[in-house]
Amino acid sequence: MKRNYKTGLIRRFARLASPFAGPVERIRIKRYAAVSDFRDGQPVFIVGAPRSGSTALYQALTECLDLLYIDNLAALFYRNLYLGMWLSRRVFGSRRHGCFRSELGSTSECGLHAPAECGDFWYRWLPRQPHYVPKGQLEKDAMAEIRATIYGVIRRFRLPMLFKNLNAGQRLGMLSEIAPDARFIFIRRDPLYTAQSILDVKFSKGMDPRSWWSIMPKDHERLLELDGPRMAASQVYYLERQIMMDRHNFAPEQFIDIRYEDFCRDAARTIERLRIFISPGIAVKRDPADLDIVLRQERTLPDELFGQLKEACAALDWEGYDIQ
Length: 324
Known about the structure:
Blueprint: H1 2-33, E1 43-47, H2 54-64, E2 68-69, H3 72-76, H4 81-92, H5 119-123, H6 140-157, E3 161-164, H7 172-178, E4 183-188, H8 191-204, H9 228-246, E5 255-259, H10 260-265, H11 267-278, H12 303-314
Parallel strand pairs: 1-3, 1-4, 2-3, 4-5
């Protein structure tokens, strides 16, 4: 209760301060966005399907590596992200957050330094639906504002910035215009258990398994006619397929593929791979070997439903994604 009250006060302050902070922030952003002598700082996005282990990976990377990320404090200042990131660094510095729990991606119960998705930052310029945003759809002024904000923060603190907002995987065309030097961590999990986890969420929320939950792939309306198991399997498939199709907007070396199962079995090796991929000069805050990552890969659905889901997944091409 005390934590929620404190968060509410900060949120109210952020909203009231925004009109006054905006002009000063724009001057700072313009100043730092123009810096050209820092070559190792770029935005890095975790992309993939929901329930693929992306939150656990996000938490591990931000716990172990000295990266910029939007924490729950900075997220309250989404209208003035530069200010929010400055406040976070003033309060927490490069301190570890110690957060390894979440509720459907939310880490609000972990405190203000825990890593946040902060979708509200992107919704300042992007529609809430559809989630798919191709190249050429966003106005140039909006792209310039997003670009300046992100790079202003990166160049102010001279560190790469990690984002975990899975909608980014459906916006690779747009991101190639905003941040052509961005890097992407594409996390995938056994699709059977990814789709099962999506169904588990629906059941936990009392939803009809034939109703939609979470990220929408392009033309998702045609998937609404499917039964629950086929809809969940197809959601994962078409989200990943879009990433596979759109990654050509970037050079091959700007993408790295991670398996959730490999990450759980050897977190230290995975994080070291990612440290080198992002920037070999990143400082290590915590030894990844100390992490205790649990592989969650058990069957949770009734036999008949699990069998239907298994058939639905087996009918899809998870290697080539039917991309011609």
